[in-house]
């Protein structure tokens, strides 16, 4: 999800049973964002810690909007603690990497498009970088389909 989408999540838009979050004001239009089992488990506990009556998943008393709008400092601390360069690893890097990992795991592009919330396949393809080994594995799969099957000694 995009940073603005994450920080503006309202509690009422989180459906832990369906493992999804409704995003009414997404960049490409309203959508329902699927979430992983691990995230659903985390959110189950996290939501219980929120102040009663707050509508936001990430409330901020001092913010004009009532919810957190910037995580830059915390993100830089986390990137630095991981031994990475915060000038190279930005918040959007996480989104880019997740989309690339989906593609490299063999998830089809229409499904990646649905998960990432992109409007067009062209945008998904911009994020879905293929590594040399991933392409080689794909070609091996094609080879396997075209190679004649070896017969066992008994079948002859």
Account of the protein in words:
The structure is a single chain. Helix 5 (109-116) crosses helix 6 (121-127). The protein has 7 helices and 3 strands. It has helices spanning 3-7, 37-49, 72-81, 91-104, 109-116, 121-127, 132-146; strands spanning 14-15, 20-23, 31-34. The protein starts with a helix and ends in a 10-residue tail after the last helix. 46% of the residues lie in helices and 6% in strands. A hairpin with a 7-residue loop joins strand 2 (20-23) and strand 3 (31-34). The chain is elongated, with a radius of gyration of 21 Å. The chain folds into 2 domains: 1-58, Topoisomerase I, Chain A, domain 3 (Alpha-Beta Complex), CATH 3.90.15; 89-149, no CATH class. It has 156 residues and is mostly helical.
List the helices and strands and how they pair.
Layout: H1 3-7, E1 14-15, E2 20-23, E3 31-34, H2 37-49, H3 72-81, H4 91-104, H5 109-116, H6 121-127, H7 132-146
Antiparallel strand pairs: 1-2, 2-3
Helix pairs in contact: 5-6
């Amino acid at each position: 999800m995009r940073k603005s989408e994450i920080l503006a999540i309202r509690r009422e838009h989180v459906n832990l049973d369906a493992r999804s979050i409704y995003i009414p004001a997404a960049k490409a239009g309203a959508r329902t964002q699927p979430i992983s089992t691990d995230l659903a488990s985390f959110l189950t506990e996290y939501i219980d810690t929120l102040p009663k009556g707050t509508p936001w998943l990430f409330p901020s008393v001092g913010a004009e909007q009532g919810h957190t709008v910037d995580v830059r400092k915390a993100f830089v601390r986390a990137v630095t603690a991981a031994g990475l360069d915060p000038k190279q690893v930005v918040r959007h890097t996480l989104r880019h990497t997740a989309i690339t990992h989906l593609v490299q795991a063999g998830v089809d592009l229409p499904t990646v498009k649905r998960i990432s919330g992109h409007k067009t396949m062209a945008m998904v393809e911009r994020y879905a970088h293929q590594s040399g080994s991933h392409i080689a594995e794909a070609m091996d799969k094609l080879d396997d389909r075209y190679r004649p099957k070896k017969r066992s000694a008994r079948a002859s």
